[in-house]
Backbone:
């Protein structure tokens, strides 16, 4: 069930605490664009690092590329994007507003002014621009609508340079651009987005086994970034709704505040892409098995994950409100692995040099475990806790006069506060270091 109030609270928190800002805000904004702030940048990088670790770096069969955003336009002709990368567009004859036809409850009246809607037509979503000084058709290029194109066109280079054995994959994180008719739902549907994609090349008869392995991997990744299993649902996409290159697709859907929508996709692309590029470029893209001497065009499994939709799913599932010390509290129950700050160190009073000095010593010890240890001495300790709760910081460590030995039995101990419960315990610095290490492992 849609919860617009929750969505508004999440959007407010992300701006207030430096996760996501409206794009070009001081000029009135630009629809479908958002900027990541200080906390959002770190969260995004943590998600991408975890994906790279699980999908590429901890495997012996994966290789990386970072392909150019601007590519020869013939690539998109061969892949079918020039002809078929489109959505149904419909325009109001009265107010001239444009909508996606499949997003309208009724095709009779305009939802804005109740004017008459025209006939639906296909609208290609690729952004066009020109390369070089000329601005004629010969200079037309496109901002890539997906990162997969750069992977397929580098397939031969990877094979020739590192000589991988099947099965193997090529992974890439990068920007993609889609001229959405109606961008909506915060960072869910954007005109400029980030993708984490793998093209995994297999023998034709092995695609089902590989498909199942990557399906399990995507569920593991959901758990790793803190997305609850009961909020992720698999949808077997029927033949009529699949992309032109796909023989089987599973959409991983998530229960967003605005409803259940697509989070990620897993597609069996057959050998469509390599065959299409081989024909269009007149380049041999077959694979030669050195053992059997068999030559064939590999088939492809594609796990495709949108970074922005992943972050929105993380924020949606981590958002919490509760009562603590008689007050309503908001916090993000982020996994320590992806939380922007792993802990916060604070002197009880900022105007006491001895407390500040000791707090900096403790922070230096914790930074040996992880560099993302926040420092906060602004305002009273309660306000500091509330700020860190909204950022999603798992632990807050306070240095007080007992730390300095006001109570001899508590000397060199600190207060460790737990984000999710608000509970506090007295620990030595070495115990806090161990607690942090355990949480990050």
Residues:
């Amino acid at each position: 069930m849609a919860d617009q109030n929750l969505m508004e609270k999440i959007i407010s928190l992300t701006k207030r605490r430096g996760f996501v800002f409206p794009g070009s805000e001081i000029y009135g904004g630009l629809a479908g664009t958002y900027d990541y702030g200080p906390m959002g940048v770190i969260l995004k990088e943590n998600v991408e690092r975890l994906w790279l670790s699980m999908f590429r770096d901890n495997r012996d069969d994966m290789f990386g590329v970072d392909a150019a955003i601007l590519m020869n336009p013939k690539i998109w002709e061969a892949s079918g994007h020039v002809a078929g990368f489109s959505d149904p567009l419909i325009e109001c004859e009265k107010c001239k507003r444009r909508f996606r036809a499949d997003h309208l409850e009724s095709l009779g009246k305009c939802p804005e002014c109740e004017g008459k809607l025209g006939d639906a037509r296909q609208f290609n979503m690729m952004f066009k621009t020109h390369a070089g000084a000329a601005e004629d058709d010969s200079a037309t290029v496109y901002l890539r609508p997906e990162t997969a194109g750069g992977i397929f066109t580098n397939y031969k280079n990877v094979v020739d340079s590192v000589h991988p054995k099947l099965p193997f994959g090529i992974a890439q994180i990068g920007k993609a651009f889609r001229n959405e008719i109606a961008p909506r739902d915060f960072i869910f549907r954007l005109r400029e987005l980030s993708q984490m994609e793998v093209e995994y090349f297999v023998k034709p008869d092995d695609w089902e086994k590989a498909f199942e392995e990557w399906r399990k991997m995507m569920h593991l990744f959901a758990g790793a970034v803190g997305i609850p299993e009961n909020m992720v649902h698999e949808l077997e996409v029927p033949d009529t709704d699949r992309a032109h290159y796909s023989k089987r697709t599973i959409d991983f859907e998530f229960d967003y505040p605005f409803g259940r929508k697509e989070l990620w996709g897993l597609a069996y692309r057959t050998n469509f892409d390599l065959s299409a590029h081989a024909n269009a470029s007149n380049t041999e893209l077959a694979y030669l098995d050195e053992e059997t001497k068999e030559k064939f065009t590999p088939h492809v499994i594609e796990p495709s994950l949108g970074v922005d939709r992943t972050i929105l799913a993380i924020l949606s599932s981590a958002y919490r409100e509760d009562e603590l010390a008689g007050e309503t509290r908001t916090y993000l129950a982020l996994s320590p692995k992806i939380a922007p700050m792993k802990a916060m160190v604070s002197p009880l009073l900022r105007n006491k040099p001895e407390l500040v000095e000791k707090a900096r010593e403790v922070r230096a010890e914790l930074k040996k475990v992880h560099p993302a240890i926040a420092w906060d001495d602004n305002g009273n300790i309660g306000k500091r806790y509330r700020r860190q709760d909204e950022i999603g910081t798992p632990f807050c460590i306070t240095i007080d006069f007992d730390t300095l030995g006001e109570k001899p039995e508590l000397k060199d101990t600190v207060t460790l506060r737990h984000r999710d419960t608000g509970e506090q315990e007295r620990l030595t610095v070495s115990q806090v270091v161990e607690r942090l290490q355990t949480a990050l492992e």
Remarks:
- The chain has two domains: 4-72+145-316, 341-440.
- The chain has twelve helices and 24 strands.
- Residues 38-57 form the longest helix (20 residues).
